[in-house]
Amino acid sequence: MEPRQAPKLPEVAEAVVMRWNPHGLALLLAVQSDTLAPPAASVALIGGDETNSVLLRAELARFVPRIELLATGERPVPVACVLLEAGAPIGREGLGAVQRLRADGTRIVFALDGFHAHCEWREVLERDALLLSAGDPVEIVPVSARMESAARVSGDAALADRSGVGLLHARLVASAGAGPSADQAAIVREKVLAETRRRIGVELQKLRSGGDVAVLRAERATLLAVNDGGRGAVTGMLRNRLHLARVDLLHEVGVRIRALNAVARADIERLPRSGQRGFPQGLQNSVEKITREIDRAIYQRLAELDELVEKAVRASELTAAAGNSGSAPGAGVSAQVGASCSWADRRPRVGPEPEPRCGGVEDHLMIALGASAGFGLGRLVVLPLALWEAVDYALAPVSLLLGAAAAGWVVRARRQLADRAHLRQWVADALVNVKAQLEQRVATALVEAEERLTDHVVRIATAHLVETDRRVGELEAQLRQAAQRRPALLTACERDLGALEFA
After folding, report:
1. Which secondary-structure segment (H or E) carries 143?
2. For residues 388 and 257, which has the higher predicted lDDT (pLDDT)?
3. Conformation bin of residue 330: beta by default, left when phi > 0, alpha when psi is -120 to 50
4. What is the dihedral of CA 120, 126, 127, 130, to 10 degrees?
5. Alpha-carbon distances of 198 from 20, 202, 367, 434, rounded to whole Å
6. CB 148 within 8 A of CB 163
7. Sequence-distant (≥ 6) Cβ neighbours of residue 318 within 8 angstroms
8. Are 143 and 165 in contact (CB under 8 A)?
9. Mind listing the pLDDT tens digit for each residue in 345-359?
10. How many other CB atoms are there within 10 angstroms of residue 50's CB atom?
11. Fewer beta carbons within 10 Å, N or C terminal of the chain?
12. Is-contact 127 99, C-beta < 8 A?
């Protein structure tokens, strides 16, 4: 078997590789180690989500020397890569599997898979390390195949280092003894040096073309483009929505009042004379019911305005300023309007009850006409009885009684019709007054909502302007510092490239 040793890097070149490609240096040290483990044909991949395992195999297959990962349950296996979940600590079943692998003498490499998707992965890693330690510290490598894939597509070397896949590959190489020859070590050495040169070259290109500060300049231009803190766009949207809400609510008030007027007129037509006294209170109850319905519509529109303002604030990039000012954008504004409004306690009233109808010339004329018609009707009814002389003496009293009854009925009917007409007129006047009160209620609610929402937006926009000025100052300071550091950084990059020329 050929010796495993390959020419090692000079200390200067090794320091350069450590700065620019730490995972590559770890791989290089692994294949050049004098204490490589006995070579293993493959590595058993144990645990982890199936989808993540497939992605991790695909990304590890791109590294040299290649590590063959097999999902196998056979025992014993020389080397195993145990994937731990980043969302929860290892369970009893997983601990039992690790203990069985250790009992078989398996060399184990632990990896915390998918840490990019869990904000609490550091706590999980510490807990797993504590549970898996058997007297000696345990190294768990956080890996994310998705981050490695994104870094490969975008060419982001820093993101590739953060993904941890390169470090995991180096640990697997050291455990599986995947560098058994000087030729293999030399290949890995050349790849690591080439990747390090590429990273230095990319950084040099950024420094020479100003790409390192292009993002800062773009961010500064974006911040300076919005000179009112986004207040104009949000305020314009708020006015339009308030006008639309006013039109809709006033239309709703008109529809409700017209429907109530129609119902009231129909009830008056069927109303007995004795029921007219309680009719005003029934109308007031109906008005209160309509008021509650209108209030629900008002609160619903206020809630919609609250949500729209919140979305507009977020779209105008005011969220950061709202967070600095100590209040969420748009949160609870409509609730504040409903809690402190001045219109909620003022209930519309139908007004005073209708005054008694005053009798006039028409009533007296109707009495006379009713009496005349009644007596004429009475004589017409008793006229056939005049053929019998025996009852002649009773004709006059009977005709008088019938005439009086008919006259009384006509007068009462006419009076009831007049009372109904008087009540209908009162209902019409009362509902006009109620409609005016409801329209005033709607207008007051929307004006108060506009005042509070506008004040809320202005406060957030002001805070955003302050934050924008502060951020612009920071960006300008960073740009000045970058301009001052550029010559030194260019010199350092060129020096590092020179150090790798003879490595």
Report:
1. strand 140-143
2. 257
3. left
4. 180
5. 10, 6, 116, 80
6. yes
7. 229, 230, 234, 329, 460, 461, 464
8. yes
9. 677 787 777 666 655
10. 8
11. N
12. no
Question: What are the b/e assignments for 382-414, b being 16+ CB within 10 Å?
Answer: beeeeeeeeeeeebeeebeebbeebbeebbeeb
Asked whether the CA dihedral 337, 342, 344, 345 is positive or negative, the reply is positive
Greatest CA span in the chain, whole angstroms?
159
- Angle at 296 (CA atoms; ends 292, 297), nearest 5 degrees: 120
Q: How many CB atoms lie within 10 A of CB 473?
A: 11
CA gap 131, 128 in Å, rounded = 5
CA dist., res. 381 & res. 376, Å (int): 9
Q: Where are the alpha helices (DSSP H) in 116-230?
A: 121-132, 145-154, 157-163, 165-176, 182-209, 211-225
Distance of CA 139 to the CA centre of its chain: 40
User: 479 is written with which tokens?
Assistant: 């740009």
Model confidence, pTM: 0.49
Cβ atoms of 154 and 122 within 8 Å: the answer is no
* Residue 423 amino acid letter: L
Q: What distance in Å separates the CA atoms of residue 414 and residue 408, rounded to the nearest whole number?
A: 10
Environment class of 163 (CB within 10 Å of its CB; exposed 0-12, middle 13-18, buried 19+): buried
Lowest mean pLDDT among 59-68, 175-184, 208-217, 252-261: 175-184
∠ Cα 109 33 13 (to 5°): 110
Contacts 24+ apart (CB under 8 A), 133-136: 134/102
Cα distance between residue 119 and residue 5, in whole Å: 42
Taking CB atoms within 8 Å and a gap of at least 24, the contacts of 417-426 are: 418/357, 418/362, 418/363, 419/273, 419/276, 419/357, 420/268, 420/269, 420/271, 422/354, 422/357, 423/268, 423/271, 423/276, 423/279, 423/354, 424/265, 424/268, 426/354
Tokens representing residue 140 in the block: 């768990």
Angle at 10 between CA 7 and CA 12, to 5 degrees: 160
Q: How far apart are CA 184 and CA 452, in angstroms?
A: 72
| Chain segment 120-170, per-residue pLDDT in tens | 898 999 998 888 887 678 889 899 888 888 888 877 777 887 888 888 887
- Amino acid (one-letter) located at 201: G
